């Protein structure tokens, strides 16, 4: 029993250590921050990050801890990302990945390649995470969504977000069409950048005026086009979530879902709606243990452990590597 409690943290430790060791050994330019300052110090950083991953796994394997620890770790990820960017921009370019700056607004993952006519590193990274972990980008890995998660802290409103699909579809259409027009008319880089900054600032306003009040991630579930892409493409990954027959329809879990994916109609259907990111917060709210992870025919507890192994390992590795 005791070993069971340590098997997930140990697996996360080994996977994170392996992933970062591969980067340390195979990539010519030092990717780990410590290695950029002192030769071989990258190995100490790898050890610390792998231990961090193991600690997070230890905490998050208990369903009651998920909402709190997901918020803490997602916030850490975002703070590390933006701190490195700020230091890098102030002249210490060791804190930048390539030095080729692009705006840290998720919309750019979609609009940037359309406007420039070529894929970016961030877009490739995003696609890889969707293949590996489905929607975890929007619950553990996005540098911007962590702010919406903070804004929505507290017990979620039971109020359903209305016209969600229509609003999301319209925004993603406008972003794609807008990027095509900017490219078509050869709009200068500065103008395109200012438009993107405006889009990002509008997103922050949505967090302040809507997410904060509703205690739901209104920015991520209704406005961000990358969230919409994740909602649709996450099914290329086999992980799913379902509600089994032990559900008493008490609706307690609704207060735990920041993504508006557990409204009464969804619960009656036995599965969260399209905006579910498999974040796992709702497991803490169900005292009947009715909400479960699914991965092919694997037992639901093993499916959840596998999902935690992949998402926490990716999260920890990205803390070491994700920068602009
Ligand atoms: S919806 Fe957008 S801002 Fe929110 S987590 Fe996903 S990509 Fe990030
Ligand atoms: S239904 Fe559960 S797992 Fe899905 S987004 Fe909501 S809280 Fe997270
Ligand atoms: S908290 Fe559990 S039992 Fe209650 S409605 Fe949600 S899934 Fe069903």
Protein described:
The longest helix is centred in the middle third of the chain and has 26 residues. The chain is 61% helix and 2% strand. It is mostly helical and 324 residues long. It is globular and about 55 Å long. The protein has one domain. A two-stranded antiparallel sheet has the order 1-2. It is built from 14 helices and 2 strands, in the order H-H-H-H-H-H-H-H-H-H-H-H-E-H-E-H. The mean pLDDT is 93. The site of one iron/sulfur cluster has 14 residues, from loops. The site of one iron/sulfur cluster (SF4) has 14 residues, from loops.
* SSE pattern, N- to C-terminal: HHHHHHHHHHHHEHEH
Number of helices: 14
Integer count of domains: 1
> In percent terms, what proportion of residues is strand?
under 5%
Assign the structural class, choosing from mainly alpha, mainly beta, alpha/beta, alpha+beta, or little secondary structure. Answer: mainly alpha
Distance between the termini: 43 Å
Mean pLDDT: 93
Question: Which geometry do the CA atoms define?
Answer: globular
Q: Count all strands and give the number.
A: 2
Main β-sheet, in a few words?
Answer: 2 strands, antiparallel
């Amino acid at each position: 029993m005791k070993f069971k409690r340590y098997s997930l943290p140990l697996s996360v430790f080994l996977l994170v250590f392996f992933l970062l060791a591969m980067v340390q050994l195979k990539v010519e330019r030092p990717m780990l921050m410590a290695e950029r300052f002192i030769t071989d110090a990258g190995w100490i950083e790898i050890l610390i990050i792998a231990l961090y991953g193991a600690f997070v796994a230890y905490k998050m394997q208990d369903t009651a801890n998920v909402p709190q620890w997901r918020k803490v770790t997602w916030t850490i990820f975002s703070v590390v990302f933006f701190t490195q960017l700020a230091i890098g921009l102030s002249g210490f370019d060791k804190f930048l990945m390539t030095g080729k700056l692009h705006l840290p607004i998720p919309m750019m993952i979609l609009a940037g390649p359309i406007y420039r006519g070529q894929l970016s590193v961030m877009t490739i990274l995003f696609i890889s995470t969707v293949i590996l972990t489905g929607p975890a980008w929007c619950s553990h890995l996005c540098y911007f969504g962590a702010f919406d998660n903070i804004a929505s802290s507290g017990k979620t409103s039971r109020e359903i977000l209305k016209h969600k699909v229509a609003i999301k579809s319209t925004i993603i259409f406008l972003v794609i069409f807008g990027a095509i027009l900017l490219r078509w008319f050869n709009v200068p880089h500065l103008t395109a950048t200012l438009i993107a900054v405006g889009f990002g600032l509008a997103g922050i306003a949505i967090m302040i005026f809507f997410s904060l009040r509703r205690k739901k991630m209104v920015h991520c579930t209704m406005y961000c086009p990358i969230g919409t892409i994740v909602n649709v493409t996450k099914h290329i990954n086999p992980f799913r979530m379902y509600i089994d027959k032990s559900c008493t329809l008490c609706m307690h879990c609704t207060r735990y879902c920041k993504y508006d994916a557990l409204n009464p109609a969804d619960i009656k259907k036995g599965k969260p709606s399209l905006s579910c990111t498999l974040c796992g917060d709702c497991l803490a709210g169900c005292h009947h243990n009715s909400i479960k992870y699914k991965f092919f025919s694997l037992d639901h507890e093993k499916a959840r452990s596998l999902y935690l192994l992949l998402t926490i390992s990716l999260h920890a590795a990205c803390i070491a590597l994700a920068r602009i």
